[in-house]
Amino acid sequence: MPHPEADSASVVTVADPITEIAYAKVNLALHVRRRRDDGFHELESLFVFAEDGDRLSGFATDDGMIALSVDGPFGAGLGNGAGNLVSEAAIKLQAFLGERRGAKLHLFKSLPVASGIGGGSADAAAALRLLVRLWDASVDQIVLERLALELGSDVPACLRSVTQRVTGRGEGLEACAIEGLSERPMLLVNPGVAVPTGPVFAVWDRKDRGALVAERFDELVEMGRNDLENPAIALAPVISDVLARLRSQAGVRLARMSGSGATCFALFDDAAQRDAATTNIRAAHPDWWTMATRIKG
Ligand SMILES: C[C@](O)(CO)[C@H](O)COP(=O)(O)OP(=O)(O)OC[C@H]1O[C@@H](n2ccc(N)nc2=O)[C@H](O)[C@@H]1O
Ligand SMILES: Nc1ncnc2c1ncn2[C@@H]1O[C@H](COP(=O)(O)OP(=O)(O)OP(=O)(O)O)[C@@H](O)[C@H]1O
Asked: Which sites are catalytic (predicted)?
């Protein structure tokens, strides 16, 4: 981002900007148990985070305004106004704190939008983390998680951005360690179709297929599911092609869809096999988005 001194005259506080990474979220398993009366669904999910994601930078200002600029590969088309979850998060935290200071923020958007890897949720969570630092605010973690949930079901889990078991609508958070996940090579592939979350849940067939048992990696592979995979495929059939392409690559231990799609992931033992798979998929589908990364430890 440009240095603050080179920027608008309204900026009073001049300091080096600080940055938070909005780590991409991946649901290694997502079991949908039931639809609640309020329309949300009770979930059991194992969340992990990639080592990479969007980047949110900023500095505090004394003018009380929240200013946001956006660029990056997926920045075009994403507004920087009230609808952006970064602005919404900032305004919510500002209101809660009665904060008179503002912030000048810049989002570098690397993650595709409405893609099942929680880009918007991760950005909102990164904004809360960044502003707590910028404003040197003391906010109880439970309070911050409540504000996060008001911004979206995935935002509380994204606040922590660690491997965790998530239940309820997204508010039940329990950090968990499954041997062999940390730093495991991971490939994310999105076929370029935006899939909004609400309509995917709406076509779920309401069949409870059972609890998520995932204490070990092999249980996650054998007994884990993503119950939104078929509903999402019904809306975006190309997701089947992505899964088939991933599953045909050498060294894949697990390939599944994340969240409500359309992004799918593959886990490998070996980074060289992940890189070979990335090269193959990019060659066969140059229009698909790929991210070769690892599970954040
Ligand atoms: C599919 C997941 O990404 C899995 O991690 C999340 O459950 C969705 O999280 P999110 O994108 O933060 O979702 P929200 O912005 O809270 O909700 C978007 C829409 O998804 C549906 N929704 C979301 C979460 C949930 N537990 N049940 C739902 O039915 C609702 O129709 C809601 O209106
Ligand atoms: N900063 C942002 N980045 C991405 N999307 C945003 C942002 N702000 C608002 N949105 C809106 O939020 C919606 C969901 O975006 P997001 O990328 O989080 O969905 P998702 O990846 O499908 O999430 P999930 O994994 O929870 O299904 C989009 O319709 C988008 O327009």
From this structure: 25, 154
